[in-house]
TrEMBL record:
EC number: 2.1.1.10
NCBIfam families to which the protein is assigned, alphabetical: PRK09485.1 (NF007020)
Gene designation: mmuM
Binding site for Zn(2+): 214, 277-278
Cofactor(s) listed in the protein's UniProt record: Zn(2+)
Gene3D superfamilies per UniProt: Homocysteine-binding-like domain
Any GO MF annotation of the entry: S-adenosylmethionine-homocysteine S-methyltransferase activity
Lineage of source species: Bacteria, Bacillati, Actinomycetota, Actinomycetes, Kitasatosporales
GO biological process, one term: methylation
Domain spans labelled Hcy-binding: 1-292
Name of the protein described by the UniProt record: Homocysteine S-methyltransferase
């Protein structure tokens, strides 16, 4: 099968949707600090079922359940380093089994703020240097890369400094990456202009796509245009449902509309990896696959 980068050159590729909302729809409790990563240890079959739901819907790229899976987070839950490494690797295996030979696995590398489990990924500016952030990310990135994903998804990144740290770490692991910021008001969550943030990836041959995720759908069009203009690379876009996350209440606020309704416009502007993030389920991905994908969904 061709590489994911080659597939992007041929046209848009459909990503999956939000893992957490699908797990909750299956009856899973995600209320602890490890969020969906806890199920890697406690209920891997539920993760496999969630991945399979998106593949049936037409997704060709499945993102692993490792967004909030870190050595530090596992340690706080009483899980030792060797077992943590096994769980990280298992996230890639579960996604690979679901997507099969005709799709690709994106190993999720969430931001430092995800490990804190307090909504910090929507703020950035943790008070850490680029070097300190790189030190935090390196062990997990190396473990995920060794498990053999098609790409590392550096996702929900709130801050260009963290993007710089992640790209520096990933330069050493031999796996392609995509870089995806979470944004608000046309800037990163840390307040940086998008042109400045996307420039971190310009000229980096390891990066196959640049864009946004875990943001309001209304933010996507402008961000895609900026990502393509600054980097000349394909864009990646997978917004939330349009609802807003309240970290204090650990609940979603507002109403969901049609979060992927602008997908054709995003593709016209240069998006080549398109899907959904939080609260975007298999139904929306099935619609997206019919709109822009090459494979019709099975549901």
């Amino acid at each position: 099968m061709s590489t994911l980068a080659a597939a992007l050159a041929a046209g848009p590729v459909v990503l999956d949707g939000g893992l957490s909302n699908q797990l909750e729809a299956q009856g899973c409790d995600l209320s602890d600090a490890l969020w969906s990563a806890r199920l890697l240890a406690d209920a891997p079959g539920e993760i496999a079922a969630a991945h399979a739901a998106y593949v049936r819907a037409g997704a060709r790229v499945v993102i692993t359940a490792s967004y909030q899976a870190t050595y530090e987070g596992f340690a706080r839950a009483g899980i030792g380093r060797e077992r943590a490494a096994e769980l990280l690797a298992s996230s890639v295996r579960l996604a690979s089994d679901a997507v099969g030979p005709d799709g690709w696995v994106a190993a999720s590398v969430g931001p430092y703020g995800a490990m804190l489990a307090d909504g910090s990924e929507y703020r950035g500016r943790y008070g850490l240097t680029v070097r300190e952030l790189a030190r935090f990310h390196r062990p997990r990135v190396e473990t995920l890369a060794a498990a053999g994903p098609a790409v590392l998804a550096l996702e929900t990144v709130p801050d260009a400094d963290e993007a710089e740290a992640l790209l520096g770490v990933c330069a050493d692991v031999g796996v392609p990456v995509w870089l995806s910021y979470t944004v608000e008001g046309g800037r990163t969550r840390a307040g940086q202009p998008l042109e400045e943030a996307f420039a971190v990836a310009a000229g980096n041959d390891r990066v196959i796509a640049v864009g946004v995720n875990c943001c309001a759908p209304a933010e996507v069009g402008e961000a895609v245009a900026a990502a393509v203009a600054v980097t000349g690379k394909p864009a990646v876009a997978y917004p939330n449902s349009g609802e807003a996350w309240d970290p204090g209440a650990r609940a979603w606020r507002g109403g969901a509309g049609r979060p992927l309704a602008g997908a054709r416009e995003w593709v016209a502007a240069g998006a080549r990896l398109v899907g959904g993030c939080c609260r975007v389920g298999p139904g929306e991905i099935a619609w997206l696959a019919r709109e822009v994908g090459e494979n019709p969904p099975d549901i």
